[in-house]
Amino acid sequence: MYENTPCYSDIDQSLNNYFKEYKEKYSMLLTYHPQIDCNSGRYLLINHSQSLRIHHGTGSVLMWYLGILNIAYKLNLTLIHFQWIAEHSDDENNWEREKYWLFYDWQIPYSAYESCPKNSSIRKNIFHFNLLPNQTFDQNHQGKQVFTIKSYLKNLFQEFLLNLPNEKSGFTFYSSRTITITSSLMEIGIVMEIRWWLQHRKLYKYPNGVWAGTSLPLNYISHSNSIQQFKCSQINFNKNLLIGVHIRHGDVVKRNLQGRIIFGDRYRFISNSAYAPLLIFLIKSLPKEIEKNYFITIYSEGNINDFNDILDELKEYLPELQCRLVFFLNGRTSETFNRLLRDDILISAFSTFSLASGIFNSRQLKIGPEHNRGRVHGMRNFLSLNLDYNHTIFQLTNEKRNLIQQRIQYVWNEKLKQKQTFLPLWLNNYSDDYPEQFMLI
Question: Contact 58/356 with Cβ under 8 angstroms?
Fold first, then answer.
């Protein structure tokens, strides 16, 4: 059941077995390969032009897409598919990206929409409204309250519906400019995770699965500006806690002619010195049964020598590290994202890229600076840490230390329990009584 590529019957069967109530509630978003209905369908169509929508960075586009789905859910619309294109993705063609994202499986192909006659209801009845900032969501809410559609948009849309020939008439909501940049996971988070779980749970089969890709061997460690090699045994990922670290370098650092980092954009750059103390604390906080059963992946751009200071400090406190750390550097955008998504704990950067992992994985413990709260409001299993003024160290208060230790135990227990059942235990993360202290709100 876990080793074959998903097929129609398997996805539909799993939807009915595990998510029946959600399939009914979110029918506009959780119908696998929906069929076009030229006369009674309700569709959301956006202009595909990159200049007329968010396209800057994979994380930003994911959060933009989340906002689109919030609109679709609130107004009961099925999305017409558009190509998944994000900046920083020139190393991939669209087919390569789609094998990771698979959004098209839940949307109406644009070719199917175009095949409807021009006099069909969905081609004749068009509601025009540009989904721009400050024109879509009210977000002046506290805590777990969901964002709501602005009354101006609701009133215009309701008036449009009342003027249709009859209540079963199909139509298209068309947005020429779609730059909605606020959203919420309070309602749509479970949709994103259901989709991801159904499609990707069987595609991860290390080292050849879609999530695996290629990485440096497990025997690379830095010492005194040189690389030493060790013979390491294969890591059993099921018996280890996987810790990912996203260190943002590519667009926030300046290098000299020798390629060394000499300057970082203080707003988005976090110094290497911040990571080792946090990682050491995490490792020392592991449950006793796995106190040496961990595996660290550092995701970044550049070369291994950029991280010598982190490695030298880690080795002083973690002598077993030589076979428990790997770098994934300069990876392709979609592949890197899908790798960091599988980690049990993720230390995120000032980056929508790593923060966006929480859209798909509520069990993963996300630790990092708080930002973009209005774009991923309601993210589960998130703990924010403050940084000092120069971003050289994460400030670990006693309260945060206690919360992190609690959550590490939780993540490990959930990992063990999930291995024993096909039932998606992470559904509990979307219960009404989920604790606010572990949410990005």
Answer: yes
Which tens digits make up the pLDDT trace of 396-437? 999 999 999 999 999 999 989 988 887 889 999 999 999 999
CA angle 122, 127, 132 (to 5 degrees): 130
Distance CA 28, CA 44 (A): 10
Q: What is the pTM of this model?
A: 0.88
The answer to whether the Cα torsion of 290, 416, 368, 397 is positive or negative is: negative
For residues 190 and 182, give the distance between their C-alpha atoms in angstroms, rounded to a whole number: 18
Token pair listed for 349? 């950067």
For 254-271, write each residue's pLDDT tens digit: 555 555 555 555 566 788
Q: Residues 340-356: pLDDT tens digits?
A: 888 999 999 888 888 99
